[in-house]
Specification:
Largest sheet of chain B: 7 strands, antiparallel
Number of domains of chain A: 1
CATH architecture of chain A: Orthogonal Bundle
CATH topology of chain B: Alpha-D-Glucose-1,6-Bisphosphate, Chain A, domain 4
CATH superfamily of chain B: START domain
Oligomer: heterodimer
Strand content of chain A: 5-15%
Structural class of chain B: alpha+beta
Largest sheet of chain A: 2 strands, antiparallel
Radius of gyration of chain B: 15 Å
CATH class of chain B: Alpha Beta
Order of helices and strands of chain B: EHHEEHEEHEEHH
Strand order of the largest sheet of chain A: 1-2
Chain lengths: 130, 169
């Protein structure tokens, strides 16, 4: 006989994209739009390597105006992919990994993670041998 | 998900949850809630400046040899249900323990449409080992997904009543 004495949670049933009341849908769209641009991905990569950077540090080597970089940073902030903090006169930028985690946990996981893992393993194996 | 070479600095995590600030505050500070998401520890707070914070290992962690106290710290600031500042030291790992106390701030702010913004700031200066762990950088080595994973799970619990990690502890 099965006796559930401990906490029992339902199995993995979180399927946000199908829910009618999906208050995260706009957030998710903003993330995908933000990630669609190579400059914005470059900015995220820079923050991935080193957090808490100022605009002056972030714009080094980018072939665009300071205003252009600011515009991209605003899009990233609106998508919650970066969080900013004031430190004296400087505004510092931090990478926020949460939105990408949410997409991973609620959306990508849905598509048989084992298959994705198998492909990544295969890619790693092939590249290691090359 | 790791935060790159970003070890030993401040890490900020921000998440939007469809729940009241009070519900989020309870989920962070009450042991009957902390057992239900993330690492599933039983977290006990003495909610006043100078009060003690203890995070107790769950059964699965103890079976794997973890000590009773997983994390310990001291409460520095309490403004329920908006702001909680505390020190935080991972007591279940000798190397992380040797790095000493770090500073952790929870900020809870209501926004539009009964969605609440939770921001977790972890100041990890001089704590590279802990920084790698809480950033999720050790996930593939069994360290769990750090704050991103914990907060994603907290969101699931409060919004759907079930946690992603449910049953895994």
């Amino acid at each position: 006989m099965l006796v559930y004495t401990a906490k029992v949670y339902p199995p993995y049933l979180v399927t946000y994209p199908d829910r009618v009341d999906d208050h995260d849908a706009d957030d998710r769209n903003a993330v995908f739009k933000a990630l669609a641009d190579p400059t914005r991905r470059e900015l995220l990569d820079r923050l991935f390597e080193r957090d808490s950077m100022s605009l002056s540090e972030l714009e080094v080597g980018l072939e665009m105006t300071r205003f252009g970089v600011m515009k991209h940073l605003r899009v990233l902030e609106a998508a919650n992919l970066i969080v900013t903090r004031r430190d004296g006169r400087e505004k510092l930028h931090f990478l926020n990994p949460i939105p990408i985690r949410l997409i991973h946990d609620r959306w990508i996981d849905k598509y048989t993670e084992t298959r994705v893992t198998a492909l990544i393993d295969l890619k790693n194996t092939l590249e290691a041998g090359a | 998900m790791s935060t790159g070479n970003n070890t030993g600095a401040t890490q900020i995590f921000r998440i939007y949850i469809k729940a009241t600030p009070e519900a989020i505050w309870d989920a962070i500070t009450k042991p009957e809630w902390t057992e239900k998401y993330g690492y599933g520890t039983r977290d006990e707070y003495d909610l006043r400046p100078g009060g003690k914070y203890l995070s107790l290992s769950n059964q699965g962690m103890r079976e794997m040899g973890a000590p009773d106290i997983a994390v310990e710290g001291e409460v520095l600031e309490v403004d329920a249900p908006h702001r909680l500042v505390q020190t935080w030291r991972l007591a279940m790992d000798q190397e992380a323990m040797a790095e000493g106390f770090t500073r952790l701030t929870y900020e809870i702010a209501p926004t539009k449409d009964s969605v609440t913004r939770l921001t977790v700031t972890h100041e990890l200066q001089n704590a590279p080992k802990l920084a790698a762990l809480v950033s999720g950088g050790l996930e593939e080595h069994g360290g769990g997904g750090g704050w991103s994973w914990v907060l994603s799970d907290l969101k699931s619990l409060l919004e759907t009543g079930s946690s992603l990690a449910g049953g895994r502890h």
